Amino acid sequence: MPVDSADVVIIGGGVSGLSSAYFLAKAGKDVVVVEKGTVGSEASGRSGGMISERVGESPLVPLAVESLNIWAGLDDELGYPTEFTHHGRLQVAVTEEQMDEVFSERDAAFAHGINVDQLDPSEMRDMIPGLSEKALVGVFFPNGGHANPQRTVQAFAWALQDMKGRLYQNTAVTGMKVADGRVSSVETSAGTIEAETVVAAAGPQTALLAEMVDVHVPAAPARVEMLATAPLEPLFKIALVGNGLYGRQAARGNLLFGGGPHEWADVGLTTDPDKPNTPLIRNIARRLAELLPGAADVPVIRSWAGVVEQCPDYLPIIDFLDSPSNYVVVTASAHGFGLAPATGKAASDLVLHGESSIDISGLGLRRFDNVGTGWRDERGWIPAPEQPAAH
Amino acid sequence: MESKPLVVVGAGVAGTAAAIEAAKAGVQTTLIDENPIGMSMIGLDVPQFFGQRIMGTLRNKAVMLGRVAAANDALADAEEAGVDVQLGTYVWGAFRNTETSRVLDGPQLGLADDEQSWVINYDRLIVAAGSRDLGMSFAGWNMAGVMGANGAYSLMSRYQALTSQRMVVMGSGNLALNTARMAQDRGVEVAAVVDVSPSVRGGEALVTGLQAKGAKFYTSHTVKEAVGRADDIEAVVLVEIDDDAEPVAGSEKTIDADTVCLAIGLAPNVELLDLLDCRLAFKSELGGYVPCRDDRMRTSVDDVFVAGDAAGFHDEMILNPEIARNQGRLAGIAAAQSLGAIDNAEALARRSDILRSAAVTAPPAEVHTGWKKWLRSLVNAGGLDIFACLCEEVTRAELIGLQPPRYLEWESERMSSRSLQTLMKDGPVNPDQVKRLTRAGMGHCQGRRCREQVSLILAEEAGADIAEVPLTSYRPPVRPLPLKVMWPHEEPEQVRRDWVKWFTP
Ligand SMILES: Cc1cc2nc3c(=O)[nH]c(=O)nc-3n(C[C@H](O)[C@H](O)[C@H](O)COP(=O)(O)OP(=O)(O)OC[C@H]3O[C@@H](n4cnc5c(N)ncnc54)[C@H](O)[C@@H]3O)c2cc1C
Ligand SMILES: Cc1cc2nc3c(=O)[nH]c(=O)nc-3n(C[C@H](O)[C@H](O)[C@H](O)COP(=O)(O)OP(=O)(O)OC[C@H]3O[C@@H](n4cnc5c(N)ncnc54)[C@H](O)[C@@H]3O)c2cc1C
Asked: Whose alpha carbon is nearest atom 19 of ligand 2?
């Protein structure tokens, strides 16, 4: 006996799944979200919260720009605060090499018809008190910002419930029943849930779920780290990228910054991957103090890590598959937070109309038709060998 | 990296004994303790609840170093035994490889002083990190002069720097009575010892001594508020409570005091153990979440041992430091044995010495019923508009209402319809989730002053047993370290070269 049934069953209560669920519920669909932990307990609640136009990745620009449009009205739409701030994004170079990066972002923006402003050191220091004297040049993107990931995830979840969507937390999807080329039901730790359509937005586990229905989704999990300082007086509201870091000052005043090497990993289907920090957080601290010497005295009070997934071309997949014919794949490729409102809109469009109102033509799964199952080994996107015990 | 054979964290009774035992067994042992800690740390109420009743002398590191050494005779014995004693050193992180993290060349500790940080490898670790003060809030607990028993003990015995004149002590177990006695011995007037219990919980002898020096006992009482001027306590208002922990109208008593010492209970310092993924279990009789360990003090992680308050605290340990000392010695022997420094027979002989002489103590009693009663009485007497979390200024009402922080100035009908109660319809209570939404526990003291209290409130709201509330997670750094201290002063060129911004190809 099924425990529930719905028009759409969404696997994964991260920001992508919840956003999809919200837009579907808003359109009148009966929606269930199945989440193995609590909402946002994986990448979505651990995100840096940066939101940008992603000018460096052409296929993403329409999605990213539409996302910013939705973000602008999201708090009112959902009825809960996300802490979205829309004061722009500054990319700073503090070394000669970083200048190339900054200029290439600037040129990419122009190529997409997006206006940006090139700032000199004194203009940048006005914008960001405490910024390094070494800051050489910056590019300011007026249309950028940030939000609080945990509040955002919860806001989507609550708004979904307000639309009568159902949320199963602490419930893992363990299997899927396929009949006549369609997924007829989803097996969960709480029982069987029947589905007209399935949206798999399970982060790093999206690939494992796809395997169950004989679909190859090339997405490799990786662990990344961030840190937070104690609150400071308000310094800047923009999203800041520079010196190999990305981050923001939260509404409360804490500096939240991440960056640095990631570690490729494997994950289990139903278990929570462990997410330790490593001494890398010291190097992040150093880069942050280099970037903002004015904040060098502020204590770091916590750090955390999250596991994201990455496709071979570093771009998300949002696609309604041919087979199984009622299955939507959503995987964010590690940009998912800022994109989430539009990702959810696009995914819901796919379910409702078979096509997306936002241009996601570059994000189909078919682009990986030639990527074989051995791709991670070929790329070296695999976990490091286990270290021999020290004793 | 070169690896230290044995590192002991915490040079209290337990850690010092562990280090001496291991060194005597021929193990090259490093004993690390954060004291004397920096003034800025004390200002953040880390690692203890110090309450800003500290003499200026603390600013002089050399003086403090001398006092810390003098406060613990066994430290000299440790050095004598060849232990490498490193004082003034914070252990802010503990790292080991896991399924998703494989880059370390062995388990590591992050260390720091007030100037810089560094990382060391270890083969065996003994965590003897002591315990932390249990915070309970009342109106005015954000003023200077509110401190915890451990903080008071540290200021009195370790630093000889407590500036209190008149103290009200909350709690009447041996922890509270001993704190009061120490305060009296140092010339502090103990104006009142207060407990919600109908009778004094600690030993008779201590009570008589305290009364002889003028301490008054108020059982079946709670603290209604602390009042003062310019954020400094001047008086404490007590109120009698009935069987339901409700205040008795008209029973208020105002007591002049410049200090309130929270001595209701202590919580084991399991932060490093949690970072290392040592299995923890809730044991009320030991103060909450404590490491699972065998009777030789080994945790679920093979190379990590525990001893003393960090392994679990109960009130008897205040009267009898032998308990912590013996645990330390057992841990030292076990670590030495596992390193192969002594053989099985030798280890057995050394353990037997300890077991033969150790007093058999009665099994400790659970503590959370008493803690709950305290909390209930404080809520009944003070209401819900009292800060549960001091750093982030989150009131009990805001916590229970699951409201976003005031600085967001967010109001909506939908938000007001949400609360802990509605959240708990979605699944079992999850303190990490609540923390992120309300910010209670997210501040600079790293949740030290509010953890237990917040969990108790969550349990109360959920109608759940406190044991069902999961541990709120710990994250490094477990001491608040300035960016310029935490950063590596020398960063290998390779790290800079290989730095990846965000998966950039
Ligand atoms: C430290 C860090 C910083 C980041 N910074 C940014 C940033 O600044 N800007 C930005 O745009 N992005 C950022 N990201 C990336 C972004 O957070 C993610 O891309 C995004 O959150 C992905 O959301 P998602 O919903 O697709 O996946 P997830 O958040 O991973 O959600 C998937 C959910 O599915 C659940 N699940 C998995 N398997 C099962 C199963 N079998 N049954 C039931 N449920 C299951 C998981 O528990 C999880 O909650 C960052 C990520 C991290 C970790
Ligand atoms: C009110 C009161 C009265 C007491 N009276 C007595 C007494 O009369 N006689 C007596 O012998 N003992 C007394 N004690 C101490 C107590 O009884 C024992 O010391 C305790 O039970 C066990 O000690 P321990 O070694 O486990 O912890 P502690 O003595 O607390 O030692 C732990 C040490 O580890 C350090 N530490 C913890 N974490 C870190 C870290 N991350 N990095 C670096 N350092 C760290 C702490 O700062 C501390 O110095 C009293 C304590 C209190 C609170």
From this structure: B13
Any idea which residue has 């099994």 for tokens?
A: B363
Residue numbers of B between 93 and 152 with CB closer than 8 Å to A: 93, 95-108, 110, 117, 119, 121, 123
Helix (H, G, I), strand (E, B) or coil at B5: strand
Q: How far apart are CA B257 and CA B228, in angstroms?
A: 10
DSSP A377: H
Q: Which residues pair with A247 in a beta bridge?
A: A240, A257
Q: What is the pLDDT of residues A232-287, one digit of tens each?
A: 999 999 999 999 999 999 999 999 999 999 999 999 999 999 999 999 999 999 99
Q: Which of B487, B493, B504 to mutate to probe the A interface, most A CBs <10 Å?
A: B487
What is the rounded (10 degree) CA torsion for B332, B335, B337, B339? -140
Task: Tell me, yes or no, whether A61 lies in a domain.
Answer: yes
> Does B468 touch chain A if contact means CB atoms closer than 8 Å?
no
Q: Smallest Cα–Cα separation from B440: which of B385, B480, B409, B394? A: B394
* pLDDT tens digit sequence for A59-115: 999 999 999 999 999 999 999 999 999 999 999 999 998 999 999 999 999 999 999
Q: How far apart are CA B120 and CA A234, in angstroms?
A: 36
Residue A92 within a domain: no
Q: Which ligand 1 atom is the nearest neighbour of the CA of A330?
A: 26
Cα-based distances in Å from A52 to A305, B267, B295, B408: 22, 44, 55, 22
Measured from the CB, is residue A42 less than 6 Å from ligand 1? yes
- Listed in sequence order, the residues at least 6 apart from B13 whose beta carbon sits closer than 8 Å to its beta carbon are B74, B308, B321, B324, B325, B328
SS3 call for B170:
strand
- Asked if residue A281 is part of any domain, the answer here is no
Ligand nearest to the CA of A265: 1
Give me the helix-helix angle, A336-353 and A15-26, nearest 10°: 40
Nearest alpha-carbon partner for A284 in A222, A225, A223: A225
In a domain, A170, yes or no: yes
Instruction: Give the contacts of B415 (CB within 8 A, at least 6 positions apart).
Output: A79, A80, A81, B403, B404
Q: How far apart are CA A105 and CA A61, in angstroms?
A: 13
Whether B484 sits inside 8 A of A80 (CB atoms) is no
How far is it, in rounded angstroms, from Cα B186 to Cα B53?
Answer: 14
Long-range contact set of residues B37-45: C-beta below 8 Å, sequence gap at least 24? B37/B88, B37/B90, B38/B114, B40/B114, B40/B482, B41/B479, B41/B480, B44/A299, B44/B444, B44/B445, B44/B480, B45/B151, B45/B445, B45/B448, B45/B449
Query: The CATH number of the domain where A190 resides is what?
Result: 3.50.50.60
Residue B274 and residue B295 in contact, taking contact as beta carbons nearer than 8 Å: no
**Tally of domains in chain A:** 1
ipTM of the complex: 0.96
pLDDT at A388: 57
Structural domain harbouring A327: 4-76+149-218+313-385
CA dist list (Å): B398 to B384, B406, B438, B465: 8, 9, 7, 22
Name the pTM for this structure. 0.97
